Automatic annotation (TrEMBL):
Single Gene Ontology BP annotation: monocarboxylic acid metabolic process
Source superkingdom: Bacteria
Protein name: SDR family oxidoreductase
PROSITE patterns: ADH_SHORT
Family under the similarity heading: Belongs to the short-chain dehydrogenases/reductases (SDR) family.
InterPro entries: KR_dom, NAD(P)-bd_dom_sf, Sc_DH/Rdtase_CS, SDR, SDR_fam
Amino acid sequence: MSMKDKIAYITGGSKGIGFGIAEAILKEGGKVAITSRSMTSAEKAAQDLKDKTGNEAVLAIEADVRDLNSQMEAVKKITDSWGRIDVVVANAGLGHFGSIEDLSLEQWNETIDTNLTGVFTTIKSTVEALKKSKGFFITISSLAGTNFFAGGAAYNASKFGLTGFTQAVMLDLRKYGIRVSTIMPGSVATYFNGHTPGSNDDWKIQIEDIGEMVVSLVKLNPRTLPSKIEVRPSMPPSA
């Protein structure tokens, strides 16, 4: 299946994994709408994507995944511009880490609202479009969605929930010809949690690797569905 002229909607697409996915789809001839809570960030990322790929089919949208109305408005902008949506990548996410003794209610709420409720609003706002296109819904979970760690109460809860949520949604929607998968990366070289990627991150999964994976998923024969994919660095540093 070709990606040419496929229309993709990527939440949190202005940097990191979302940016890498957008770049991969554009290189395959697809069209991409990316969102950020900052229009300035969305527009800068859109221009960077155009410059890197030579593909001008990028739509920058300001939207907040925590707000269903904001998501509905974003989807309307995409369908008004391009008529349909073929691929949705629920990528927007964040992390607050620390002992449960120190974790604040505000940090808990922001993590759950973004990483879990934000995916709920993403599928709720796009499901009718995906029914029409028999499209693909992909969530970006984490190995933290099956592996717990100290200081990860909020993040683990959000990603364990997201992994289960995605699998249930897969069962709900496959009768419409909609494919649903979750990708669960380990260490990725991104700006997540204040980190700045550098040469010391060469051993990590790169954002373009996740982008290639998304393209491969979409291009796979529709009769086959890798519904949950765990992704690890091949050669992590020795302890």
